[in-house]
Protein 1
Amino acid sequence: MLRSALLLVAIALAISRPSFAQSPATAAAGWGLLGTWRIDCNAAPSRNDVTLIFVVRTGRLFHDRNWGDGHDSSVVSSVVARTDGTIDLTITFPSISQTRQNVYGKTRDGHWHTLVSRNVDTGEYLIKDGKFVNSGIASSVYTRCAGP
């Protein structure tokens, strides 16, 4: 009985551990994150439908955002593609003076949505368990778009 319990614990730990260490750019590429993502690729960028671009420049991964009346570009300092299929990013956003942990999960059809968005410095969650903390509304699903 004890041997079976230990075996189950060992399997659970092995499954929940992140995959081997990779550069942020390599991990993002392997997960399929690089490119341009939108809620609706045919609509103009707006505060409700921000264009998200994950791109590698000079070997570093950047997260660019365009919300129509403004844009920013932030370095992604850490990416871990997890064995459970999620990807965990640490992004420093100079435009809002925050470092955030964002965890994305893929949908069955290859899109993704945010499971967690947390301010690393304060621990405050914007999104937890795939829902906005203040409203309970599910996070948006992003689709890969053609072009930048």
Protein 2
Amino acid sequence: MASITPASILVALLLTGMLGMVGQGVRAIAGLKKMNDDATRQNASSADLFIAARLVVSLLIGFVAGVVAGIGLGLAEVTSLNGQSVDVLLGVMAAGYAGTDFVEAFLPTIAKRSPVPAAPDAVMPPPTAALREAAAVRPAQLLPPAPAFNAKYGVTFCSLVPGGYYCDDPDDLRIHRSVRTNNPGALNFSSWQKARPGYVAVTQPDNSPDHNVTTIYRSPEHGVAAWYHLLAVRYGFPNGMFTMRDLAVRYAGGAGSAAAVQRYLEGWSRWMHPAPEATAQISVKDQSAMQSLGKAMFSHEAGAATPLHDDQIAFGIEREIAGTLPP
């Protein structure tokens, strides 16, 4: 150990980090192949599904895993590597391939006790009295966990409102699609959503005749904001005014059947008290009306009362209007 110098330590850390990146790169290549296959099945462009930031994060994870592996092996052994040390080199690369799982295995305490902090621009207002009361009476096992990093998607899922509900596993088929994707409006993927704050990926095609894919968001508040953007901007209602029937026609795909439109109207009305007439006019500028409508639509898509708190729905709408939604 006396022969180890600061320069040799730096070289050893860089070497093991680069080897870890190589291992993670092998995994990324396999992921890109799967992405291309998914794009073909979804009749979409690979560019729509590829997210460069996720690849960068993946490689950084590989680098960190490689460094951790090097420290675990002992820097003295790393600095003395020679041509006969292929097994050691492959071991470090394997650690990089395993990535997050390897890091968490070596750093269980840090992984469990250091949740990812919110970015400065994501600092949220304190919860309202109603939200604090709701959190206090819910059983502890139903309280949402701390922000959770999902290695497959390379993002941290969370709620942007303290105590809010969210799902950290978009692939958990036991949970309804609109809930597990943090996409309460169940928006099918369109290219404009890829540029939205909080966009993560898309699901596998569903079993419908159109084989729809649903967009995955980092938080339900991002999903609420995307839903509001769809109604307020993408649909282009004249002067921002629409009737319930107008909305049902658009939500059914424009060319949806009369039966599909009626199912939406009946489904939304079930969760609105009093139930509005199909010809009732709503303005996208009326935040109170949009919040009530959103809550009804989200419950319809979930097949049960939406798990989102009113504060979460209001937050998504307000931040979308103000243009201050965090990434």
